[in-house]
Design goal:
alpha/beta; Rossmann fold; seven-stranded mixed beta sheet; 11 helices; globular; SAM-dependent_MTases_sf; methyltransferase activity
């Protein structure tokens, strides 16, 4: 049996390392697009699952929805509260586990996650929770990195240095339509499933590598275990991913990363 609780404890320590919002805040456009795709309405109750620093919750609040974000990394929740206060937005941030949401059945009109719930180690349990807390006739909207995209390649690169725990399926499977069908079955009618791209923009491939190693918690934690030639090789491997997907010809990085944007109706 896979010990998902031990895995989540280790994951949480990773997300609480570094300063993930320095990366996550750059992804705000994904949340804005997702809330538009979900056709969120003012006054709706919206839950942002595995919210991190609150990208989707803030996007919902900007549209006058009643937004709540839930995450198990308390440092990210604190930054979400700071962001909401700075923008004078009413957002509630709650500590909680995506596999055991602190919510009543059918409590939410719209349940969303932007590259967040995909990291829950028990995919089925996380999907079951999304369904449980969403009202019948309500919507579930997700944005998840795809296996074949840039971030899928980045995760495979990192896995060569730190193999994932046995029994944990790749997070990027959430970016595959057949996996979503298996997880949700007939409980959700998908009304939109669109592959989209977020463009990572950095000064250079080396800058991309440095930024992720310094601020992206799980990679920051891994880099902290390396030194000398090993650290240099890891840095080069990460930069190589940016080079592989880069479309810029001026020395900077403009690298499209594919993600799957889906919207479904809870049956």
């Amino acid at each position: 049996m896979t010990d998902f609780e031990a895995i989540k404890k280790n994951q949480r320590a990773g997300w609480e390392t570094g300063d993930y919002p320095r990366v996550g805040n750059t992804l705000q456009i994904i949340a804005e697009r997702l809330l538009e795709a979900a056709d969120v309405r003012a006054g709706q109750k919206v839950l942002d699952v595995a919210c991190g620093q609150g990208n989707a919750a803030l996007a919902a609040a900007r549209r006058f929805a009643r937004a709540t974000g839930v995450d198990y990394a308390v440092n990210l929740l604190a930054q979400g509260r700071e962001r909401a206060a700075a923008e004078h937005l009413e957002v509630r941030f709650v500590e909680g586990d995506a596999e055991r949401l602190p919510c009543d059945d059918g409590q939410w009109d719209l349940t969303v996650s932007t590259v967040g719930v995909m990291f829950a180690p028990d995919h089925q349990r996380a999907a079951d929770e999304l369904v449980r807390v969403t009202a019948v006739g309500g919507r579930i909207a997700l944005a998840s990195w795809t296996p074949q995209g840039m971030i899928g390649e980045l995760f495979r690169t990192v896995a060569k240095w730190a193999p994932p725990p046995a029994g944990v399926r790749p997070a990027t499977l959430w970016g595959a339509t057949d996996h979503l069908d298996a997880l949700f079955g007939e409980r959700v009618e998908w009304i939109s499933r669109e592959p989209r791209h977020y463009v990572f923009r950095y000064l250079s491939p080396e800058h991309f590598s440095s930024w992720f190693r310094e601020f992206y918690g799980p990679m920051t934690r891994l880099a902290g275990t390396l030194s000398g030639d090993e650290l240099a090789r890891f840095a080069d491997d990460v930069a190589a991913v940016a080079r592989q997907f880069n479309r810029a010809e001026d020395g900077t990085v403009a690298a499209p990363a594919e993600y799957l944007e889906v919207v479904g109706v809870r049956r």
